[in-house]
Design a protein that fits this description.
Oligomer: single chain
Distance between the termini: 45 Å
Radius of gyration: 22 Å
Number of strands: 0
Order of helices and strands: HH
Length: about 80
C-alpha cells in the first residue's frame, strides 16, 4: 500500500512540476491545494513509517528480553 501511495505522490509532484509554467487563477488555486495535500500525505506516511518502526523495535526488544530471561532461568 505505501509503495502505491508513494507512487501517487511522485506522480502528483511530477504533474505539479509540469504545470509550473501554466498560470491562471484556477490552476494556481489547484496547484496550491495539491501542494498542501501532498505535504500532508507525506507527513502522514512518514509518521506511520516511524510509528511502525517504533512498534517493531519494541516488539523485538521484548522478544529479546523474553529469550534472555528464558536462557537465564534454564541455567
Amino acid at each position: 500500500m505505501s509503495r502505491q501511495f508513494q507512487q501517487l505522490i511522485n506522480d502528483v509532484e511530477e504533474l505539479l512540476a509540469r504545470l509550473e509554467d501554466e498560470h491562471s487563477p484556477q490552476l494556481d488555486d489547484l496547484h496550491r491545494r495539491l501542494e498542501t495535500a501532498v505535504a500532508k500525505a507525506k507527513s502522514t506516511l512518514h509518521k506511520r513509517v516511524r510509528s511502525a518502526g517504533f512498534t517493531s523495535g519494541i516488539l523485538v526488544g521484548g522478544l529479546l528480553g523474553f529469550l534472555l530471561a528464558s536462557i537465564r532461568s534454564s541455567d
